[in-house]
Amino acid sequence: MKNRRILFSQIKPVDMSSSYFKLAERFKLDISFVPFISIETVDINDFRRQRVNILEHTAVIFTSRNTIDHFFQICQELRITVPEAMKYFCLTEFIANYLQKYIVIKRRKLFVGKKNLNELFDLIKKHKEERYLIVCSQNRKIEIADFFETNNIEFTEATFFKVSSNDLSQLTLKDFGILVFFSPADVISLLDNFPDYNQNKTLIACFGASTILTAKEMGLTVDIEAPRPDALSMTDALELYLEKIIG
User: Fold this and answer.
1) Are 42 and 161 in contact (CB under 8 A)?
2) Do 208 and 65 meet the contact criterion of CB atoms below 8 Å apart?
3) Which residue ranges make up each domain of the chain?
4) 0.90 cut: is pTM over it?
5) Which fold has domain 5-36+167-245?
6) For 102, which of 70, 88, 128, 173 is 20 to 30 Å away at the CA?
């Protein structure tokens, strides 16, 4: 691998013991971090205009750490105390563990998928009697709403945060051997900034099924995918790939 420069589409980790830096040291990589998107909680008045009563729901669905942060931010601004009886359905264990930032986790109120929406859907089917609140951005996951409608399960979608593409004009993408994306919005930002982007010899790494799908739908070749059984994190997937081509 001649070009060992890797660009991660997120904020640089503060912890220098992060697995990213260990990876860079092992394979002598030149790594950079540039957030491709900006995320912010919706204005409280805009949220109110959606006419969503959080306390009318008995279960909340979280598909990312962002959904957790902005859900509790809105609750705080509305001076809502989330009842202890509220149930939480999380896409992955990683997301579920993040809940501890806001609440004391009670396993009987927590339901966790393993790696994809289908596993989460299987859990929800066992609890059809709940009234679900889906926390999302303006770039909602259409397949979630389709699932609830198809299965006649009561739900509300609400926009708690908004995602926008950052200005990436300072980047020269051809300088990097690998571009790493963590959300569909990252991929969209790439093409918002570089509508005529030509992947050429650059490798694309994507985390998450929806990110992979978005990249492929936009004509990109995804060379490195995570999570998967042998690589639950992006650094795991990169490590396995680099071991094969560098050794």
Assistant:
1) yes
2) no
3) 5-36+167-245, 40-163
4) no
5) Rossmann fold (3.40.50)
6) 128
